[in-house]
Amino acid sequence: MERDGLDLLVVGGGITGAGIVRDAAMRGLRAGLVERGDFASGTSSRSSKLIHGGVRYLEQGEIALVREAAVERAILRRIAPHLAIRAHMVMPVHGRTSAGLLKLRAGLWAYEKLVHLEEGERHETWDREETIRRVRGIETERLQGAAVFTEYVTDDARLVIETLKSARRHGARLANHAPATRLEPLGAGRMRATVRDETCGREISFECGAVVNAAGPWVDAVRRLGGEAKPRMHLTKGIHLVVPRDRLPLDDVLVMRAADRRSVFIVPHDAITWIGTTDTDWLDPVERPTIGRDDVDYLLDATNRILPTARIGHADVSGAWAGVRPLLHQEGKSPSEISRRDEVMEEPGGLLSIAGGKLTTYRVMAERVVDQVVARGGFRAGPCRTADEALVAPGEPVVPPVRTSLSDDEVRYAIDEECALDLADVLERRARINFFAPDQGRGDAERVAGVMASRLGWDGARQAREVASYRARVAEDLAWREGSA
Ligand SMILES: Cc1cc2nc3c(=O)[nH]c(=O)nc-3n(C[C@H](O)[C@H](O)[C@H](O)COP(=O)(O)OP(=O)(O)OC[C@H]3O[C@@H](n4cnc5c(N)ncnc54)[C@H](O)[C@@H]3O)c2cc1C
Question: CA separation (Å) from 441 to 400, 401, 445?
Fold first, then answer.
């Protein structure tokens, strides 16, 4: 980047930035991306990990968003089938009459008229008896039955990494642990960017034909790197809890109502189950927001109301994570009411910022931004091809999602092929050991750090620091448990 400059610099290596740099590189732009921490270290490793077809936007009347999410879900299944695992979403209905169930069926029927569905994706309805038989331990009082529809489970951080690897195959230059620190407008959208290489402390500076700010919760902060900017973001926090699968032995994803009527998911996957999420206001962008006892109790309460015999308590929780939604502020709207639509903003100096949106719709968001960059900068560029080409190239290894262990060879692969530079990069994002392994990887941290030390030339002190800091991070995610029974 320093030697040649770029047509397009993307600031932020979450799913939004990854999608943009892939699209731009595939169209033939000299594209690069810098990421402050590790790739996917922000919101994009902390989602509910669902590829939503948009059913829930129907309730809010967001028809365009419904259609877009359904199309993008199908595209993702085509370009990364291993990162979109089919799941049945079971939505039980409780009430004095069957009116609620009928309303839900009508909604799903309308949804299926609006979007194109694949084989086996149409909804079905279970009556009371079938629901009791298929959802072990479900609350039976006033149970009317359940509506069942299809969604897909993904590994959000793996989706980012594979998108970036695809971008790199098309010539994109990528740097993690490299925050953008200054963006100076040069006129007509061009900018001089300054980036600090955190591995050696050196600052580099280079010219770019355009800069796109895809910094998620930090979008306002990056907008300010180029001058004054009025805040536009409204951040909300969402937490998830992990419990061993044998404590909640479900076959399908359960969609339940929390005490405030919000939808909350219980997602079974291999040996674990995750429960989420919350939606509460959050002020400052941070990589790992704190998890409060009230957040935890909200989710456990919802779980115990729908599955009363499970009696899930604090001690059952083996892992937890929290993320920040980068939403665009809408006057007078509460966190759950704010639209998930994305928007591109242009600053007076020419910086383009993208905010809002979902993991599910990242590809089409990227397409819109790159269209704008190309039109404004007059770059010679081919058409968008991101919907057609698989993320993993033929002959490349298909890394399975949500891995909870790593061989020594796999640690080396994460370093050599996936830019992992510290222990958390490997245990949190190249695999998902921190959230999903029974001991969150505390036991394995030394072995993995040993492999990293020999590959990256760490001395004993660095190795010990990495292990200590990883263990401290894991402890922080479960700190709410202190003092609880
Ligand atoms: C709790 C929760 C559950 C969700 N569940 C789902 C779901 O199930 N399905 C779905 O489709 N969507 C879901 N979402 C939404 C989805 O996760 C987000 O829309 C998406 O991950 C946002 O990605 P992003 O790339 O915009 O932001 P991020 O992933 O946060 O990426 C922005 C990156 O910019 C970097 N950055 C910041 N400042 C700088 C700088 N100065 N220089 C360089 N880099 C910088 C940050 O470190 C960060 O990595 C969920 C969100 C939350 C919070």
Answer: 18, 17, 6
**What domains are defined for the chain?**
6-44+157-232+337-377 (3.50.50.60), 84-152+234-326 (3.30.9.10), 408-481 (1.10.8.870)
Q: Is the dihedral of CA 72, 77, 80, 85 positive or negative?
A: positive
Q: Parallel, antiparallel, or unpaired for β 173-175 and 85-94?
A: unpaired
Which atom of ligand 1 is nearest to 15's Cα? 25
User: Nearest-5° angle of CA 33, CA 35, CA 39?
Assistant: 100
* Helix spans in 313-443 (H): 362-377, 408-418, 423-424, 433-436
Whether the upstream peptide bond of residue 181 has omega within 30° of 0, thus cis, is no
Nearest atom within ligand 1 for CA of residue 357: 19
Judge whether 73 and 85 are in contact, CB under 8 Å.
Answer: no
This prediction's pTM: 0.97
Nearest to 38 by CA among 199, 204, 192: 199
Report CA(133)–ligand 1 centroid distance (Å): 38
182 CA distance to ligand 1 centroid (A)?
21
Centre of ligand 1 to C-alpha 358, Å, is 8
Q: Report the candidate in 269, 320, 275 with the shortest Cα–Cα distance to residue 152.
A: 269
Cα 47 to ligand 1 centre (Å): 8
pLDDT at residue 56 above 60?
A: yes
For the segment 180-216, what is each residue's pLDDT rounded down to a tens digit? Answer: 999 999 999 999 999 999 999 999 999 999 999 999 9
Q: Ligand 1, closest atom to CA 50?
A: 8
